[in-house]
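G., before I forget:
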Amino acid sequence: MSGHIAPVRQPLVTGHKTYHQITEDICRPTETAPSLSWVITFIISVMCLGLFAFSVAWTVWVGIGSWNLNRTINWGWDITNFVWWVGIGHAGTLISAILLLFRQKWRTGVNRAAEAMTIFAVMCAGQFPLIHMGRLWLAIFIFPYPNTRGPLWVNFNSPLLWDVFAISTYFTVSLLFWYAGLVPDLATVRDRAVGLRKKIYSIFSFGWNGSAKHWQRWESLSLILAGLATPLVLSVHTIVSFDFATSVIPGWHTTIFPPYFVAGAIFSGFAMVLTLMLIARKVLHLEDYITIEHIESMNKVILLTGSIVGVAYLTELFIAWYSGYIYEQFAFLNRVLGPYYWSYIGMMLCNVVSPQIFWSRRLRTSLFWTFFMSIFINIGMWFERFVIIATTLARDYLPSSWSYYVPTWVEICIFIGTLGLFFTLFLIFTRVAPVVAIAEIKSILKTAGDQYIGPNALAHSHAGTSPAHSATQHGTVVPPEVNDLSARGTVDIDGENDKPLD
Amino acid sequence: MATIRIERDGADAGAVESNREFVAAGQRNILFGLYDDEVKLLDAVKAANADHLDIDDVYTPFPVHGLDPLLGLEESRLHVAGFIFGTIGCLFGFGFMTWVFTRDWPIIFGGKPYWSVPAFIPITFELTVLFSAVGMVTVFYIINGLGPGAEPRRLHDRITDDKFCIAFDVTELSGKEVDRLRDYFDRTGVETVHQKMVAA
């Protein structure tokens, strides 16, 4: 018996899976030898990571002078990349926290990978402020700890320090949230493993046994962490925007920045989730768990946030004109028509104009267009940060100090290097942990999957057509080999589970 | 006292007088049945409640909704821990910044007052969330007895996969009572029944 929740809602799990098949499908990538495409991608990623190590070492050895920053443009690719990565790191917690609070069941297919992506993206983001310090080994100075310099404390009034707290809190909470969800699934992998692998997964699954009380607390924990992470995820990019908004630079000193940054962060984060998930669902054969319905839902979020960002761009321009403040007016005129006009055009095309194609349901559900757009948006959002940072600084109050900025090979290599760091971590993740939340997928199988058993379920649209399944009196689908189990009722005193159940 | 027959790999391991003889010191004898569906599990738990059978624990591959009230589990009070830790983080963050900027090392930044409350809000908020989340997650693992190297009772490998388990502690039960439990399992559509010694 299969059914739909509503005529407009497609099932979120397809393929008439049993619980065991779900386990098999999702655990398989962690249990088999990596495919050739994985190995090749991994090698390229590790090479990029090596490039990262080299270019960071070069920066530290030669000094920040190896970057093309100058007295006028003192933030360049480093902070652009920082903000870009932090933005990407917003989708995971948004999906797992805000969509949990909104009871959006489609989050279950993508939340695990999106949260992993969040954690790795925040790790990449964190590199840039650290490297920009020039003396990496003094990075501990950013934390307020009792020291022999007075003790001299950090400046708690500075948005840069707020950033330290926001990013480190966000990283910690995202990691805890992600891992709490991962523990039951690591236990699933553990119970399928043997030998050393079982020992390793035993340590990392914390001895999870699926007790009813544990599940109850786990759900409670997830809900409260979601409640905490929701304002947190909104606060992080708000505080990142304060880096700019609390300054007195025309073009930065605007109250629209916090909401506009947050919308942009969700926008770019979803684009990166789509980039990764479209590849992952194909390579790891997860098409039944990350369905077109999931992709369409994410594209709707992209359309919404892209339009919010577009409204924000236009509002900025309008307010700059309406303010009657010539420095502000010049800043925005310069942003659109100045030396970096090409990045403004790129930003507008990628972020505002192109996502509008998702008004069309056909394009929203097209894998090709979704993938194409996800790359496009990632580029567009990078341009947005570059526009905000470089164009604003390039033309300051003193025309004699006006300048132009292009990155050096070191800056470019560091950026490519963080992509290497990100993909290396993500590829390792796909090999060691279930990429889709197994327990959560199972829990929606009969409430939002193709085996829906709730009110208005379409009766028997499936039973009888497939020899693999039969309907029980409860209207649930169980494989026949489980139904006619001959071993029913035997007592297995040694408890060794020596008889496999199928 | 009735005898129960214990099967081991299909062979008859012999008749015994009581369940108690199997149990070494510090161990519990657990009789558990595996169901293949959460609807059957819920029906079985309802039947156990109707028969006044004392379920030791229920193990499932995912959270089964509607199970908690049947088992008489009280609502989790984790949120209380979250609130307490959050309050501590909030007071600590705000108090620390206040102490630093008014007592320990007052510095004027941009002509603002030493005690510049609005500027303290972001960090106070972040520390509230940080303390609350870290504290609550720590409490979660401690009260559940989970952690790296923890070895709580694990009855069957398929419980984290697709089997729903109802477990009874039969250490102190007579053979007759165990028979009653096996009847109950058969009646409620169990798939397999197992018995296992576990650490108490």
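Helices of chain B lie at 38-50, 67-71, 78-104, 117-144, 175-187. Chain B has two domains: 4-61+166-199, 78-144.

More on Monday.
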